[in-house]
Amino acid sequence: MSKTVTESWAAMEPKAKVVPYQLELPALGPNDVEVDVEYCGVCHSDVHIIDKEWGDEASRFPKVAGHEIVGKVSRRGSEVRELQIGDRVGIGWYRRACLSCQECIQGYENLCPHGEATCFGASQGGFSRKTIADARVAFPIPKEIPPEYAGPLFCGGITVFAPFRRFGVKPGDHVAVVGIGGLGHMALKFAKAFGCKVTAISSSADKIKEAKEYGASQFINSSDEKQMKEAQGTIDFMLVTVPKKLPWQQYTALLRRNGKMAIVGAILGNVEVPVMTELMVRQLTICGSITGGRALIKDMLNFCALHQIFPKCEVTTVDHLNEALDRVRENKVRYRMVVKL
């Protein structure tokens, strides 16, 4: 099939403002769909890529970022059966997976070594009128989820939802969410809907009211030594959503014996915890998690539709994309940014 040229918004060099750009889309393959983009979230990962903070491998210019895509199918390849023209779908961090490697077969398409990220490296993302993805990783959006709020679910949403399923969180568990931002506020909503006792941990005391509105029954100010000490040994599962290094032993001390800590914040550096006196004697688990496979994404969408869980979003138009990127860059958004194409 012939290639399509579409209007997009690209950074022409690192840290540059995005400008209109005529983007040539790849040819539509037999398992692909072409999607008319309606909305695209603006994630901090987009800023990292535009600003070349993750190096040459992540950022090739001109760069069209954007990986929280919502739109309607406008064309489909000859082998596509499940999606119809006009279906509203979402596309997240990856637009392809091989579906035949060990990771894919086990349901970890997000870990596919042969996959293609949506806007990483040479791939061009969703700040565009149209995009192309494998139909098998383009997910129908339940009608109960407003399309303007759906995009962030395909990155931030699945990032915090997946650990609840992956690490066996169950009703009645005491869950702590570290950081009340773009990831953390959604994690609080999920934890409450899972039937957990929910504690928010943050150094921002001004977020107490919002944290409780999102599902927290308790709030710990991490700058308050007394509050942190009183909470020691009370947490079954801790989700770390902040992208910064923490005084790790202060946080592992909050876990009960056999407790788990899952890290989803993009933290540079190491996690330093004594092996014998912490990990072994108290039988703690410290692990990472990144997005989720196809089954988990479908599970999350159905869960959100059932429990009416949506991210808190600021929605603007693509004419204000540079302002939106700057607000994300300066951490001024509460809590997710979305542009309408």
Automatic annotation (TrEMBL):
Its EC number is 1.1.1.2. Gene3D superfamilies: Medium-chain alcohol dehydrogenases, catalytic domain (3.90.180.10), NAD(P)-binding Rossmann-like Domain (3.40.50.720). Belongs to the zinc-containing alcohol dehydrogenase family. Keywords: Metal-binding, Oxidoreductase, Zinc. It comes from the Eukaryota. InterPro entries: ADH-like_C, ADH-like_N, ADH_Zn_CS, CAD-like, ER, GroES-like_sf, NAD(P)-bd_dom_sf. SUPFAM superfamilies: GroES-like, NAD(P)-binding Rossmann-fold domains. This is Alcohol dehydrogenase (NADP+). Pfam families: ADH_N (PF08240), ADH_zinc_N (PF00107). Its cofactor is Zn(2+). Residues 15-339 form the Enoyl reductase (ER) domain. One of its GO terms (molecular function) is zinc ion binding.
